[in-house]
Amino acid sequence: MDKLKKKLLARQESGSLRSIKRGQPHLIDFSSNDYLGLARSEELKQLIFENYHGTSQLNGSTGSRLITGTSEITERTENTLAKIFKTESSLVFNSGYMANMALFSSIPQRGDTVIYDELSHACIKDGCRLNLATTWSFRHNDLKDLKSKIERAEGEIYIACESIYSMDGDFAPLTDLAQLCKTTGAHLIVDEAHSTGVYGERGSGLVNDLGLRDNVFAVIYTFGKGMGIHGACISCDSTLKEYIINFSRPFIYTTAPSDFELISINSAFNYLSKRPSLSLNLESKQAIFNGLFPQYSTPSAIKSVVIGGNQKTKEVALELQTKGFDVRPILSPTVKEGTERLRICIHSYNTEEEINLLCQQLKQQF
After folding, report:
1. What is the mean pLDDT of residues 343-351?
2. What's domain 276-365's superfamily in CATH?
3. pLDDT reported for residue 16
4. Strand partners, 114
5. Sign (positive/negative) of CA torsion 87, 91, 97, 100?
6. What is the DSSP letter of 296?
7. pLDDT in tens, 263-282
8. What residues contact 186, with CB distance under 8 A and at least 6 apart?
9. Average pLDDT over residues 143-170
10. What letters, b where the CB count within 10 A reaches 16 and e where it falls short, cover 103-112?
11. What is the pLDDT of residues 102-124, one digit of tens each?
12. To the nearest 10°, the Cα dihedral for 188, 193, 198, 202?
């Protein structure tokens, strides 16, 4: 226990000690991943309850997918998601973290190579730690660095990236990545956590929006952000799905999603399909911020204001909170030391006046 206490004390002294905090609903939300406002939508909540009410489903799934955790609703949901994401198959998971762990821990084999963007999410890196393949990172969005590593790679080669990066808000060069993988025979895997629901027909993400689905090996979609609910899926062909079912320990040995979660997924996509204006509204709000604060302009809803230093970053965030804005600090070691930042998320429900006021407060800080 002394060893654990010393590590916690070191975190505290560096200003990087993490703690669990409640949301702040009295503040203007510029922090959550609820880009389209679906998590707070009373209409969607009512739709979910209506679709669930009166069913004879159990409260929980009662077991893993291979025992008692697969129902008619499970199969119907996976078929629906496969159609939305324009792929042969899909496989649902409790979270995007678990979906990435399931894929990266089981697909690459001994003698293969995984090369991931250095800014990829922790779950991609953690999944790679569990496989027996050689694992490298490449410099963020640097195709030249990636190509040089592909040339040295052995076995089957898997390239991993996010379509939108969660801390910087920039896009992966998906078209160029797909072309590079096509010419080298590498397999491209894309995490669409921050683009699911926001881009593409029916919220099918950037891969589909760019017409690249046939050039991508697998896509991980997450529903706890733009879709406003919970859960995730892997979109892939039937062979890959069958392999994960048979060999992926994070899939085999975990309790399946409940029918309520699956009904929520179906309801959210049905709700979104009838409201395409939500993503257009979000796009217009992003443009307002970009115009007011061009030095922190990004193509997505995520705006990253780098300050540097844990203490200074926390002080600026607290100042904004006292002014009524829910803006949170992102500290090291979550990001590299020296790049501590404010992570600002724009939403479809933020008003033009709120964005103007936020930008005025930010400009006073810099």
Report:
1. 98
2. Aspartate Aminotransferase, domain 1 (3.90.1150.10)
3. 82
4. 135, 158
5. negative
6. G
7. 999 999 999 999 999 999 99
8. 115, 150, 153, 157, 158, 159, 180
9. 98
10. bbbbbbeeeb
11. 999 999 999 999 999 999 999 99
12. 70
Do 289 and 303 meet the contact criterion of CB atoms below 8 Å apart? yes
The DSSP H or E segment spanning 114 is: strand 113-117
**What is the reported pLDDT for 281?**
96
The residues of the chain that CATH labels 3.40.640.10 are 45-273
Q: What are 338's two structure tokens?
A: 């020296």
Place of tokens 């703690």: 19
Q: Determine the 3-state secondary structure of 279 from DSSP.
A: helix
The listed CATH number (3.40.640.10, 3.20.20.70, 3.30.465.10, 3.30.420.10) that belongs to domain 45-273:
3.40.640.10
Q: Which of 140, 150, 147 minimizes the C-alpha distance to 171?
A: 140
User: Residue 114: is it exposed, middle or buried by C-beta count within 10 angstroms (0-12/13-18/19+)?
Assistant: buried
Contacts of 362 (CB under 8 A, 6+ apart): 293, 305, 320
Q: Is the peptide bond before 276 cis (omega within 30 degrees of 0)?
A: no
For residues 138-172, b (16+ Cβ closer than 10 Å) or e, as one string? beebeeebbeebbeebeebbbbbbbbbbbbbbbbb
| Residue that the structure tokens 């992003």 belong to | 286
Cβ atoms of 104 and 240 closer than 8 Å: no
| pLDDT(147) > 70 | yes
Strand order in the sheet with 302-306: 302-306, 341-345, 328-330
CA distance 160 to 117: 6
- What amino acid occupies position 133? A
Structure tokens at 29: 């939300």
Alpha-carbon dihedral of residues 125, 242, 81, 59, nearest 10 degrees? -90
CATH 3.90.1150.10 domain range(s) in the chain = 276-365
9 SS3 class: helix
Q: Output the six-digit token pair for 229.
A: 């609910």
